[in-house]
Amino acid sequence: MMSAHERNWAGNLTYSSVRIHRPTTVAEVQEIVRSSSKLRALGSRHSFNTIADTPEDLVSLEGLSRIVALDRERGTVTVEAGIKYGHLGTYLHGEGFALHNLASLPHISVAGACATATHGSGDRNGNLATAVTALEFVAADGELVRLSREADGDAFLGAVVHLGALGVITQMTLAIEPTYTVQQDVYVDLPVAQLEANYEAIESDAYSVSLFTNWQGDAVGEIWLKRRLPDGVARAMAPEFFGAMLAANALHPIPALSAANCTVQGGEPGPWHERLPHFRMDFTPSSGDEIQTEYFVPRPHAVAAMRAITAIRDQLAPVLMISEVRTLAADELWMSPCYRQECVALHFTWHPNAAAVQAVLPTLEAQLAPFEPRPHWGKVFAMPAAQVQARYPRLGDFRALVQQYDPAGKFRNAFIDTYIFG
């Protein structure tokens, strides 16, 4: 244990907690939980808002990062909560296995990513939490609780995207599949007119697709296409893709930055865990000096939502670094932004000017309001709590689940009180 105050990955938030505990065993977690009156858990600190903060005790899961078991017959891997996807991916590939998807950063922890429904991309790919088949957590009384998809059904679906409100996650079991090869190609300057006319075809052209834009001009800056290769053999790419041109060199999502710490492009095949993320595990992708926002809207509204954003591009320009547009499959997880709806995820990476970001968010959210957006739980947004709550049909059931395992509100903080119980 050491005293705070420490900061999140981006540096835009200083935690208010007076103590940060760093357990290395489940027994230590249980003792910390029993002795605390208010507690929140920390993963890789990649949240940009106060979802993980509390004035009293924080528990870092960094010391719980081991592989627990690989079950080849059942097709699962069980890991401790603090393991990072990059390390898990290297292990799984070495054993001949893979996950269905990865986020743009392999540096994030499994427990933190699943708790907030963090995601990758792909028409048929659910967010990272959809791979969870079982989880173990320390509830408010210090006892271990185990829930699984097979045994606990509906309650399990409510517990996976838990926002840190059920307890401290100690282990998770994830579905795995045979390892696979991916090639990554980048095209530049996709005409907006082509994007709008062919959106579905563009997004479904590869296993994972990301569009990067600053909403300026008549073209989308970059399209990153990640293709699964069943035979491991690279596919020759056409020089043109819906009017976009195949990039001659490796690119960073922000064109002015070096691509040295990005994953390999140019159609060179490689293992899934070294292509699905945008950034390499052995490099820090940036100083973290940024703020992030993201909204999920139903897939049928994708083009209309992008037009609505383009209409305010002049207001976004002074504070925006880059935006990313991705698609996601629907899922059954109660508190997932993609609960029972296919989504387009509209992501904004802002310059580290909190006041300027907060000033522009209401305008951005007003533009997206007709499409009933759901904000990313771990990123900055300005939507009133009532609007957020209205987007989640199972919110009442989730409240009851939280109260079942934490009747006195030990794991509740200002964020949970506002957006879940407010």
From TrEMBL:
Question: Which residues does the UniProt record annotate as the domain FAD-binding PCMH-type?
Answer: 13-179
InterPro entries, from UniProt?
Answer: ALO_C (IPR007173), FAD-bd_PCMH (IPR016166), FAD-bd_PCMH-like_sf (IPR036318), FAD-bd_PCMH_sub1 (IPR016167), FAD-bd_PCMH_sub2 (IPR016169), FAD_lactone_oxidase-like (IPR010031), Oxid_FAD_bind_N (IPR006094), Vanillyl_alc_oxidase_C-sub2 (IPR016171)
Q: Name one Pfam family in it.
A: FAD_binding_4
Instruction: Enumerate the UniProt keywords alphabetically.
Output: Oxidoreductase
Gene3D superfamilies xrefs: 3.30.465.10, 3.30.70.2520, 3.30.70.2530, Uridine Diphospho-n-acetylenolpyruvylglucosamine Reductase, domain 2, Vanillyl-alcohol Oxidase, Chain A, domain 4
SUPFAM superfamilies to which the protein is assigned, alphabetical: FAD-binding/transporter-associated domain-like
Write one Gene Ontology MF term. Answer: D-arabinono-1,4-lactone oxidase activity
GO CC entries: membrane
The record ties this protein, via PANTHER family, to: D-ARABINONO-1,4-LACTONE OXIDASE, L-GULONOLACTONE OXIDASE
Mind telling me what this protein is named? FAD-binding protein
